[in-house]
Design a protein that fits this description.
It is built from 15 helices and 31 strands. The chain has 644 residues and is α+β, with helices and mostly antiparallel strands. Strand 8, helix 11 and strand 9 (313-315) form a beta-alpha-beta unit. It is globular, with a radius of gyration of 24 Å. The structure holds alpha-D-galactopyranose (GLA).
Length: 644
Amino acid sequence: MPTDHRRNAQRLPWRMLASAILLACCSGQGHAAPPKPSGHWSLVTVGNAPTPPMGWNSWNAFFTDLDEAKVMGVAEAIVKTGLADRGYRYINIDDGWWLKRRSPDGRMVIRTAIFPSATGNNSDDTSFKPFTAKLHAMGLKAGIYSDIGYNSCSQAWAPQGPNLPEGTIAEREVGLHGHVSQDIALYLGDWGFDYIKVDACGLSAFGPNGGGGKQGKYRIWQPLVVDQKVNLTNISAVRALYAEVGHALSMQRPGGDFVLSLCNWGTANVRSWGKDVGTMWRTSNDMAPRWTNMLHSFDSVATRELYAGPGHWNDPDMLEVGNGAFDNNHLLQARAHFSLWAIEAAPLLIGTDLRTAPQPILDILGNAEVIAIDQDAAGNQGVLAHNSGDYQIIVKTLSGRGDKAVALFNRSDEQADIQLNAAHLKMAADRPIRVRDLWTHQDLAPFTGARMVRLQPHEVVLLKVSGTPLLASGFFLSEMTGRINVAEDGIVSPEADPTIHRMADPYAYSTSSTGSRPIYAGWGAPRADSTPYDETLGIAGTSYRTGIGALANSRIEVRADGAFERFTAEVGVDDSTRDKTAAVQFEVYGDGKLLVASPSMRFGQAAVPISAAVQGVKIIELIAHQKNSSRENMVVTWANAALN
Ligand code: GLA
């Protein structure tokens, strides 16, 4: 494992100190009034990533100790090993590339001591053009890194590390703030980059008590992001700053040929709005090459299946395959980590030094059958079909009718025999289901009904299965998550999601704080095959394995594209509702017109079947319209919701 300057540096207090900073708060995305149908698909694609971006990033391999020889060596390795042919295209440089922002014109200057090809005619006239041109000539794409504030993460948290920006306070302000159009024009215009990752330490770490601010070396920025406290975070301001970058990128590349990677670590409720602002968005704190960090990152996307889809992706962070607990001595764990990213349709950004990576690690990263699951064109994220702290079964519906990928995950420390059955797969229990193991590359004996699979501790068995769908035609909505846009979630005040593994601080592993607590907002957002609070769907005592669980006053858009004839569901107030008195009406709209509405329904009333003809309809909207105010959240269920 490479030396981690930051893990050895003074990174310890930053997320903790941040939580002590007081500042004005803002509201979440609450909606007092019932939503109105939009009549159109309101999600605007930012950039160009119809399938999750694949490539390599320098951070997990080199931290700020990067240089051109290392990056080019990796680029050559990615081509030579055949990984480029498998889809890994982006070669992304992370923190550490910059020298300073030039005065007085603000043009960024590259640290040519580590990127010699960037040397220009005079010392400040540097350019990455030769570097990106070389990558492009190799058939690759190039990515760069910046921050949304004035300053970057390493300036705050690794002041002893190599390659920190130099000069006056103004010259060391290398982040985008105040220079968005100028920097984007330089990076994606003159310099020819195709991808930009935008970090957020500038918004969180440079307050008077933050890692950067208290050094007295940087301009103070009263934090807009307080990592562990969504109520102290200015959600709308953070979103607006990132939206400005998206706008500048669209101006620079009107054809949309770019990737905007938002990197504010799951703060500011980005799990709800990242899809509207970026191509991909981090859902959690940094991954580290430790098992429990991987669990934390995975859990931060595992319940967000309705937020990803073609062009917009949940990002549980860059891969640690090849490093630490996922290295050549831990191939079972490395396969598990890679399988989980693939089943969740996560971006696949390699984070190991490919110049020296051993063949078994290259074989994992290059497993074409697993990559194909990640890259499936339907863009569905996996949905939890069985969920406990020990075992999980995650099912991803693939483009071919009757084809699914399923990950069986043994999180426990003991060997386990896990049952996979037709109901998990939404397949007929009396028809054979074909099975292929994507790690052994073998077809297993077909099964009917159920089969047992033995798993070692921490193992993921990743299978591709083909069978007879339960529905004669069409899909349950939870099988088409890539066609869903949560336009309004009905959440009035953001709450932290308690289902995510509570890892130790990834840079300090210290117990000096009072512990690791739920931190990412998102609790209460709509879910596939679950209530918004991770309970089994149920109406008036009847449980449902499939459906969409949501809060009242939510609006969910479904991109039907005229491909379906009928929408059906059984609707009602969910038995887990917090409010047991208010009434809700379930409304289905097609291209903005009301197609069907349920009667007003209350807690305890039996489910009501609804059905709407949707021939030719492009956008279906599901609105749970709360009829009167309530003191607590109403939970509603669109049970067995399907389009056929
Ligand atoms: C943050 C990000 C990382 C990496 C570093 C660089 O911690 O989350 O992915 O970019 O900053 O300093």
